[in-house]
Every structure is written in C-alpha cells, then in structure tokens.
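Bench notes, afternoon.
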Amino acid sequence: MPKIVFLDRDGLASHIKLSEITAPAGSTVTFKEHATTTAQQTVKRLSGAQVAITNKVVIDQNVLDSCPDLKHIAVAATGYNIIDTKACRARGVSVSNIPSYATTSVPEHAIMLMLNLRRQLLPYRQHVANGEWSKSSAFCLFKEPIKDLSDSVLGIVGFGALGQATAQLAHGLGMQVIYTARSDKKSTYAQHLPLNDVLQKADVISLHCDLNDSTANLISTSQFKLMQPHAIVINTARGGIVDESAAVYAIESGLIGGLGIDVLAQEPPKADHPLIELAKRPNVIVTPHIAWASDAAMQRLVDILVDNIQNHLQGKALNLVN
C-alpha cells in the first residue's frame, strides 16, 4: 500500500487539481497533503511514506536517515537543489523533477517586466490616478521618457529552454538578441558572446540560468558596473543569482536604469527586505515568484508530477535527476 505525502501543497494554487494516482494491481494508494511543512515537521510527516512530493521543503541526509521507507522524491518544480541527490543515490532513492513546463509563462512574464520598465507603465498609471492627466495642457501627458523594446538589445544569460523561448519572443518584438551560455547553441537570431560582452552591450539583461555554485551571486557590483546606465535587469530565474545588496546599490547609485525581479534569495521575504523597500521606486518591480504560475503552466506541472509518480509506482523511470 504505497503512501504518498505532499509536504507543501500551498506551493500550487488551490484551484489546480492533481489527477488520481493509482497503485499497481492488488494495492491502494494512501495520499496525504499538507499546506506547508517546517523542517522540524518533515521527518514525522514522512514516516512510513514511500513517495514524498516537495516543492521547497528540504530533504537532506538527516531526513533520509530517519525515513528508511522512502523510495522516491517527486520535486514539484524544475530546480531540485533542495534535495541531497548524492545521499539519495547512495540509498537507492530516486528523484524526479518537472522539466520545461513553463516555457510560455516565464518568458511572457520576463517580457512583461521589460515592457513595463521600458515604457514606464507604473509611473504613468500613478500620474493618471493622481489626476495629473486631467490637468494637462495637452491631450496627452509627458512625464518620463518612453523607450521601445524594438531595436533595443536584449542580453540573455542562460540559453536553455526558457532562455531560448524568451529570445524567440524578443526577436518577434524586433529586439536584437545576444546571449551567454556554457556552450554556443545554434540560433538563427541570437549571437553567442562572453558574459562581460553581453553585460556591456545590452539595453535589457534577462537571467535564465540555473542556480548552482558557479552562478551564485553571478551578478554583483562588478557586473553591474559593466552595464550601461540605462540598462534594465530582469530576473525570473533564481534569487541567489543576483547579489541583492549589490542590486540595491546599483539602483540607488544609478549604475543601472531599472530592475524587474520575480525571485529573491529568501522566500517569502521579510517585510523590510531591501528590495521590497526599493520596489516603491518607479524603476523597480518586484513580483512574488509567479513568473511560472499561469494556470496552464501549473496544470502542466501537476500532470507531469503525477506521471512521474505513476511511472515510479510501475517500476519505470521518468524525468529522473539522479
């Protein structure tokens, strides 16, 4: 009788439903879900479980040592740095993730942030709400300069599925696309360049790389100093890729022109987080880690999640990362 425990169901919208998981012939599935789970609750909740579902709850060696029945960890996300995959491998615990489910949602969110910041949407919305348009001497209201995305240069850091999909949308808007990645991937409309060249040339920089030892704080003060003073930095990847203190300094000192941030190193952030405070400025937008979260993307995620678990229960491998 396989026992499946979802440790943090609140990481998905409540209206997104998981389809039923069926057990092999002769047994039934026991399914238990929790809204959230703290580190102190993890072991107790996984007691007797063969399958754990987690989005952001850490499963490390200590948890594995205390959960001998665990056979599979289904990560309800693409990133799986919350799992000690080496310890899992040593214990014969398989780990699956959700690849390429948000290749529409994340690029659209990134482009939305670019358009908002380049075209000054939030400041102009506030001017109208404040009654300034009604007092204008002309039919329109000119306050902040408005810049087109077309003919501007987009620099993409990381050229996997999300980076390439963002490049495709940007190309359709008439942007010139350059990118940096570990390997030179063939593209008919994007030019591969070293990181520093991308940072120096781009009007908009969009991050789409994984968070790992080599990309932690990849964008820090020295990188911000390479950028043009009007450059906008978009991060829909992972919070730890950008040095947050350096980002605050870059905005406050005028090193760059704007920030569009969907991810932070600590989530949820504290109320007094410096970047949350900075979001009161017209050239900074912070969204609460929702670039991935269109209804269609979340439904794809849970469908793949169920498939991963179903395949494990049938003795098959699907989307394993270890």
